[in-house]
Amino acid sequence: MRVFLWILVIAIVTLVLTAAVAYPGYLIAHAINDTWQFHRIASRIATLIALIGVILVARRYQLGNRAALGFAPPLTEYLGTVFKYFAAGFAMMLPMLALMFAAHLRMPKVGLVYDGTFTVELVLTSVLGGLIVALIEETFFRGLLHTAVERDRGATTAVLAVALLFAILHFIGKARVPDLELHWSSGWQWLTQTLRLIARPTQILDAFLVYLAIGILLGMVRAWMGHTAGCIGLHAGWVAAMLMVRESTDANMDAPLAFLQGSFDRFVGWLVLGWTLLMGVAFVVLKRRGLAFARPGPH
Predict the structure, then answer these.
(1) What are the tens digits of pLDDT across the range 149-183?
(2) What phi and psi, each to the nearest 5 degrees, are found at residue 131?
(3) How far is residue 101's CA from residue 246's CA, in Å, rounded to a whole number?
């Protein structure tokens, strides 16, 4: 668990350092492009600081090789698995998204032209966004971190511990500091709002449970398969499908079942949680029947 504890230390140090340098970083970045928002710049700074810390930990504990990062299978086999699970993940989201539209939880964006050009751009950006998010997050969580914890404490502890951190970190950097109120202490204001968000679990309970359930599900797939190809494919497919809907529609808060969309981001809520649990049950059934997730031998 040493690596896991080091990651927690890195997370804390990252938040403090980001708060200290966020405003100077904003001034520099804003001179380059004045459309960049403060919270996005702060998030990028935090990502860079955390990346440096993670690289140091990976080198210290010999976690920088392909197997430790979850890329053990040959490239062609790995990419084939990613593609297969991407298609499966995307298809899994369609019934849930259909329920959203059937319950009038999502409505077309006002003034948006739904033509061929928009559709092509939406599909390409959503798929690319899903792949990028999945590659980064799964390499870190289900690759490096899962491997480190599994070595010391076993697969079950790895799945649960990594899923818990996965859920918590999804709420880091979500605070918004209005650009009209920026000053030298804005970084600390950003940090205070971030911690305040985490300290009020009732406001984010549904979204937190969703991310926790997703983390556990992906962790189980990682433990079953022995690498991250299935995790990246599923994660990318889920994100791509949801991005297509989020970027082309708005949440309808006047719908009778609007509470199912959640209070955090008006999308990741109780409906997504219920669907994730159903997917988890389906995955366990598939595993027990030997239809998927066979753990391969060492490469």
Answers:
(1) 998 888 999 999 999 999 988 887 677 777 777 88
(2) -65, -40
(3) 12
Burial of 99 (0-12, 13-18, 19+ CB in 10 A): middle
Residue-wise pLDDT for 232-257, tens only, equals 999 999 999 999 999 999 999 889 99
> Torsions phi, psi of 107, nearest 5?
-130, 150
Within 13 Å and on the Cβ side, how many CA atoms surround 62?
A: 1
Mean pLDDT of the region 23-37: 83
Distance CA 7, CA 2 (A): 9
Q: What pLDDT score was predicted for residue 296?
A: 53
How far apart CA 217 and CA 24 sit, in angstroms, is: 40
Please enumerate in sequence order all residues whose Cβ is within 8 A of that of 22, keeping only pairs 6 or more positions apart, or say none. 38, 41, 42, 45, 186, 187, 190
Residue 279 near residue 271 (C-beta atoms within 8 A): no
Using CA atoms, how far apart are residues 299 and 296, in angstroms rounded to an integer?
Answer: 8
pLDDT exceeds 90 at position 270: yes
Angle CA(118)–CA(108)–CA(177) in degrees, nearest 5? 90
**Distance, CA of 134 to CA of 118 (rounded, Å):** 24
| Rounded-to-integer distance, Cα 295 and Cα 224, Å | 5
What is the per-residue pLDDT across 183-215, written as a single tens digit (0 to 9) for each? 888 888 888 887 777 777 777 889 999 999 999
pLDDT at 201: 73
